[in-house]
Amino acid sequence: MTRAAPTGVSVGNPAHAPRDDAIGTPPRRPTSVPTERYYAAAFAQLEIERMWPKVWQVACTVDHVAESGDYFEYRCGPYSVLIVRGDDGTLRAFQNVCRHRGNSLCTGSGADLREVKCGYHGWTWDLAGALKRVPNRRGFGELRMSELPLVAVSVDTWERLVFVNLDVSAMPLADYLEAVPQDIAWCGLGDFRCYATMTVEVDANWKTITDGYSETYHIQTLHPELHRCMDDVYAPQVIWGHTGKSEQIYGVPSPQIKETLSDGDVWDAYVCTQGALMGVAEYTPFPADRCGPRESVADVIAERTKAFAAGRGVDLGWASTDQMMRLHQYNVFPNMTLLVNADHLTVMTSHPGPDPDHGELVMILWTRMPPGAPRVKPADVRLKADDAHPGLVLTQDITVLAGLQRGLHQPGLTHLTLSNEERRVINTHRNLERYLDLPESDRMTGGETPDSSPAQR
Length: 457
Ligand SMILES: [Fe+2]
Prior knowledge:
Blueprint: E1 31-34, H1 41-51, E2 57-61, E3 71-76, E4 79-85, E5 91-95, E6 109-110, E7 116-117, E8 124-125, E9 131-133, E10 152-158, E11 161-165, H2 173-176, H3 180-183, E12 192-202, H4 206-211, H5 219-222, H6 224-227, E13 230-231, E14 237-239, E15 243-250, H7 263-274, H8 297-310, H9 321-325, E16 326-332, E17 336-340, E18 345-352, E19 359-368, E20 379-384, H10 392-399, H11 401-408, E21 415-418, H12 423-436, E22 445-446
Parallel strand pairs: 12-20
Antiparallel strand pairs: 1-21, 1-22, 2-11, 3-4, 3-6, 4-5, 5-10, 7-8, 8-9, 10-11, 12-19, 13-15, 14-15, 15-16, 16-17, 17-18, 18-19
The structure holds fe (ii) ion (FE2).
Fe (ii) ion binds near residues 222 and 397.
């Protein structure tokens, strides 16, 4: 890390430590964030110059590059990184560019790569990045091959996620992830296998996408079905620095719902939003006979989910109902959200598109498998937003994006007005301000804590 080293976020006076609800300890005033950050070309350019080349980003999974010769091209805005598993089994990453005239060396992903050969003039490197062949080399005069290796990119893995960082002097990934790995160590993430990625091209800035996976405030309005089977009030949040977390309990109705929901109502809402996780088809009625006096709806869902997992050889006997039904949602700056419980893992990222009003939502989809299961090379799918229907809730999240981005342009809206319930969104902006080194006059304002200390800065 050469600039903008993260600082841990202090919760300040223990008397004002956040409570275990989504709102936490409210500030004296809302936080105001300039909206132009979401559409101004100059701001996007600052991100491209000062932020994207300095941060660790999820590029693909170990399942994409498990064998020698497997390769994967990761793109983020103008940047392109080639990740390749070498003959020696080592994972390496390079800037995806020929050192002769700048052609891109690889696109997409594949297997059995033995060398990296530019398709323009034939310059060729080995999988460790050493230049091996230059056609008609004599014409260059004294061309020193050793001075023209592929340009290295930092690469590292956490569990089965492959991260890259264009900054070769970046802080270690393990440090960048702060408390996240230890916090979720109980879950055994290494037993999940990626089976697909879905990249959705949307009419929205990358932050507009990521913000939607950084707060639960929108659930009561945008996701009415989900609201009937999850608790968005007791939803503790913590911010560590570059990273943060929210926890949400599923299989219970939101305390905000005034009507009394029956067990069947909660079951129906869960089946309609997440029934696939327990292999239950929509409109399957609540198995009332299985609900004993001490067995909650959440217990029934957890047992059904465990039985479904057992069908593919996965033993979840160790997992409590809480470990099955509590969703742990981690945010890693700038663009990653990781959603996990004992049986479920989804990783979401977002990327800048060709201009600030366009971006990509990437969903990395996983299945827990028996320990030591072989990989199956993931299917990578790219879709337009209108063609993407990844389930009721995620489709609702995608559908809102274009109107949200258009609204951000309206001249009467100069600032977002954010609640402490949205403090992981605020934290994204806090870290962004550090990386971009914004002058004080361009920084967000408000959000002071009740004792008048600066808002978690
Ligand atoms: Fe959502």
